[in-house]
Amino acid sequence: MDVRTVVPDPRLLHSTGAINVTAGYMGGTGAQGGAVGDTLLMGVVILKNAAAVTLTIAGFRGEDGTARNVVLTGSTSADTVYNFGAGLRNTGAAMTLTASVADLVLVSLQPA
Predict the structure, then answer these.
(1) pLDDT tens for each residue of 51-64
(2) pLDDT at residue 3 above 80?
(3) Which pTM does this prediction carry?
(4) Where are the domains of the chain?
(5) CB environment 65-102: b (16+ within 10 A), e (fewer)
(6) Which is nearest to 57 in space by CA: 78, 77, 43?
């Protein structure tokens, strides 16, 4: 059986600065800073690289109710795929995405 991982409408992060996300839309003039609960993180692909690449995602709520960051890490030997099924909603703050290296992280988002 041929198994494929499909990330719906992935976007390649071309910046290493924080990218605002608004209702599933990242960057550009349409994403000036979203709101709590407006975006679903569907999946992430971090391409393999000589040094490990990370994606920091701000906007999730911790057990104490405070907004927290989640850091996803890639590999030096294989592409790393994160699939979140029905999606992870930003329950703590507006979502931002920060890649440690440009052009090696693909992110799939949807409006909540």
Answers:
(1) 989 999 999 999 99
(2) no
(3) 0.88
(4) 11-111
(5) eeebeeebebeeeeebebeeeebbbbebbbbbbbbbbe
(6) 43
